[in-house]
Design brief:
Layout (H helix, E strand, L loop, with lengths): L2 E4 L5 E10 L8 E7 L5 E4 L3 E5 L4 E9 L6 E5 L5 E5 L4 E6 L7 E10 L5 E11 L15 E6 L8 E6 L5 E7 L4 E6 L6 E6 L9 E9 L2 E9 L2
Parallel strand pairs: 5-11
Antiparallel strand pairs: 1-2, 2-3, 4-6, 6-9, 7-10, 8-9, 10-11, 12-13, 13-16, 14-15, 14-17, 17-18
Length: 230
């Protein structure tokens, strides 16, 4: 609860609430804010989720603003070891994940935008760090480009996509509904050769139904079905 004010007869006249909805201890399925006549001009806009591999060099951009034109500062809390946060002083900042980031996990990172006049905004991004296949005990010749599909399937709140890459060629993973609309797509080629699992956080916000999972690379396309229950 950021702000609440009451008028006559106990009626709410101003409200500012930040909420998260969790399912069975997993990262939030839904995040957002409700603002009704709230006294705020400060906003911070990080991505809701970011997926990266261990031991890679990646930069995530964050912006903040005061709609009244006041300068703002940006800070971050909860960043994992092996990452650096830099406020550029112009309403933009960067979270750099360096090759020393070697511990997989899900990290909630809070970004704060402050105008120095008592107005502040906070937003949380979930950083999902997955293990890079640094060494593989089987030869690359024995690896086969394949899509094992969704596990568990069907599911209601938690699902992951299992697949195998033979090399690090450009490859995209897509989720498509029966009308042919792409619900989400993600570049997975840089994950490198080996077997991989990608948590499908989007399942918590899509409608129940039948979907196709598609794995694409040059000249090849693999598909598998999945069912979302509610």
């Amino acid at each position: 609860m950021r702000q609440v004010e009451f008028g006559g007869a106990g009626q709410v006249t101003k409200l500012w609430v930040v909420y998260e909805h969790h399912c069975e201890g997993n990262p939030p399925a839904i995040r957002g804010e409700v603002r009704i006549n709230a006294d705020t001009s400060v906003y911070v806009l990080p991505p809701a989720d970011a997926y990266v591999l261990t031991q890679t060099d990646t930069t995530i951009s964050v912006t903040g603003t005061d709609t009244r034109g006041n300068p703002v500062t940006l800070t971050a809390t909860g960043i994992p070891l092996g990452s650096l946060f830099t406020d550029h002083g112009d309403g933009s900042a960067a979270l750099r994940l360096t090759p020393t980031l070697a511990t997989p996990g899900d990290y909630p990172i809070a970004f704060i935008c402050d105008n120095g006049l008592g107005n502040q905004a906070t937003a949380t991004m979930y950083l999902h760090v997955r293990q890079r296949a640094a060494s593989i005990n089987v030869s690359r010749q024995s690896l086969r480009f394949s899509l094992q599909g969704a596990v568990p399937n069907p599911s209601t709140t938690a699902m992951a996509i299992a697949f195998t890459l033979a090399d690090d060629s450009p490859t995209r993973l897509e989720l498509v509904d029966l009308a042919g609309r792409v619900v989400f797509d993600r570049e997975v080629g840089p994950m490198g050769p080996g077997s991989h699992h990608i948590p499908l956080a989007e399942i918590r916000s899509i409608r129940a139904g039948f979907y196709w999972i598609t794995l694409r690379r040059a000249g090849s396309k693999l598909s598998s079905s999945m069912i979302v229950l509610r």
